[in-house]
């Protein structure tokens, strides 16, 4: 499975960005998918998860602002980020897991995409 993340960029606080993670080699619909982010010098933290049956989980700091979803037709997973804050600035990574109901996907990783939120 190869994952290709895109959609990062620079946005002002309060703005929106949409990240996309496109997959090749396996149908994402059968996998648990997630988005992580990493601050400089810190470990990656899980931001959002969507299991194969569509159940979603979010870390508290992004609830109500971020939405994870699937586009099965494009074999991709999206992360819609709204009301962005400077503390959302990080490198974002998508991940996929062969366990369809995993709440901590980690089997496969995409390259990171930088999200920068200016105040």
List the helices and strands and how they pair.
Blueprint: E1 2-6, E2 9-12, E3 17-24, E4 32-38, E5 45-50, E6 56-58, E7 66-71, E8 76-81, E9 90-97, E10 108-109, E11 113-118
Parallel strand pairs: 2-11
Antiparallel strand pairs: 1-3, 3-8, 4-5, 4-9, 5-6, 7-8, 9-10, 9-11
Explained architecture:
- With 119 residues, this protein is mainly beta.
- Helix content is 0%, strand content 51%.
- It contains no helices and 11 strands.
- The protein has strands at residues 2-6, 9-12, 17-24, 32-38, 45-50, 56-58, 66-71, 76-81, 90-97, 108-109, 113-118.
- Strands 2, 4, 5, 6, 9, 10 and 11 form a 7-stranded mixed β-sheet that branches.
- It is globular, with a radius of gyration of 13 Å.
- 34% of the residues are buried.
Largest sheet: 7 strands, mixed
Question: What is the element string, with H for helices and E for strands?
Answer: EEEEEEEEEEE
- Work out the strand percent: over 45%
Would you report the number of β strands?
A: 11
Distance between the termini: 37 Å
Helix proportion of residues, in percent? Answer: under 10%
Shape: globular
Structural class from helices and strands?
A: mainly beta
Q: What is the average per-residue confidence, as pLDDT, rounded to a whole number?
A: 96
Give the count of helical stretches.
Answer: 0
Radius of gyration: 13 Å
Low-confidence stretches: none
């Amino acid at each position: 499975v190869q994952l290709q993340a895109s959609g990062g960029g620079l946005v002002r606080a309060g703005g929106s960005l949409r990240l996309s993670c496109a997959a090749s080699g396996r149908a994402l619909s059968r996998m648990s998918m997630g988005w992580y982010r990493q601050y400089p010098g810190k470990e990656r933290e899980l931001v959002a998860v969507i299991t194969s049956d569509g159940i979603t989980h979010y870390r508290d700091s992004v609830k109500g602002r971020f939405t994870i979803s699937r586009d099965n037709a494009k074999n991709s997973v999206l992360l819609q980020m709204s009301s962005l804050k400077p503390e959302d600035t990080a490198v974002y990574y998508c991940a996929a897991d062969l366990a369809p109901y995993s709440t901590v996907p980690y089997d496969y990783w995409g390259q990171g995409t930088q999200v920068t939120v200016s105040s």
